[in-house]
Design brief:
Elements (H helix, E strand, L loop, with lengths): L1 H20 L29 H4 L3 E3 L5 E10 L5 E8 L8 E6 L3 E5 L5 E5 L3 H6 L11 H33 L12
Parallel strand pairs: 1-6
Antiparallel strand pairs: 1-2, 2-3, 3-4, 5-6
Length: 185
């Protein structure tokens, strides 16, 4: 063991000058990019409109009749509101039809109670007759309800068929005088 330690020490002593004489390879970290100066805002300025005040707002016509509610907003690449998506029909948001109108056709007004509403100079009937606004590849609540309705109908038909089959087998199992006979299987 002593010979092994002496050998290792000798190797280390001989290798040390080679390590010291070897050129150092510096590894420099890439310069960290300085973050851009971010301007933080502490609240809206006078006259600013918040999207949260639009989305969910009641849409009324000029006669003050409710005709829908705002479901979404489409923005231009520079952040300006371009389109207001109005949900019309349905019940409690279910099976609503989405209609898109230009923001220039709407007015945002504040009611006496402080809640904002959207005014759109049209009728509920005109909105219901308008083409539906759809996002490619996205299922609407109306689509999902239609699919669920088809699934329920299919399930109902299957259960109905099985019930009729069971009834027919039970009827066959009964003899004509009302007494039970062995089922045919």
């Amino acid at each position: 063991m002593r010979a092994f330690l002496l050998t290792m020490s000798a190797i280390g002593a001989l290798a040390m000058p080679a390590l010291v004489a070897a050129p150092a390879v510096a590894q420099t970290a890439p310069e960290a990019a300085q973050p851009a100066e971010v301007k933080f805002i502490t609240g809206p300025e006078e006259g600013d409109l918040r999207a949260s005040r639009w989305i969910g707002a009641t849409v009324k016509n000029n006669a003050g009749q409710p005709i829908g509610d705002v479901n979404d907003l489409l923005l231009t690449p520079d952040g300006k509101v371009k389109v207001v998506v109005v949900g019309v029909g349905g019940f409690v948001g279910l099976a609503e039809k989405n209609i898109a109108v230009s923001v220039s056709d709407t007015q945002l007004r504040t009611q006496e109670n402080g809640r904002q509403i959207v005014i759109l100079d049209t009728t509920k009937e005109a909105l219901l007759a308008a083409p539906e606004f759809r996002v490619a590849g996205e299922k609407t609540m109306r689509d999902r309800l239609g699919e669920a309705s088809k699934a329920v109908q299919s399930g109902y038909e299957t259960v109905k068929e099985k019930a009729i089959e069971g009834y027919d087998r039970a009827k066959e199992a009964m003899s004509s005088d009302g007494s039970k006979s062995a089922p045919n299987q």
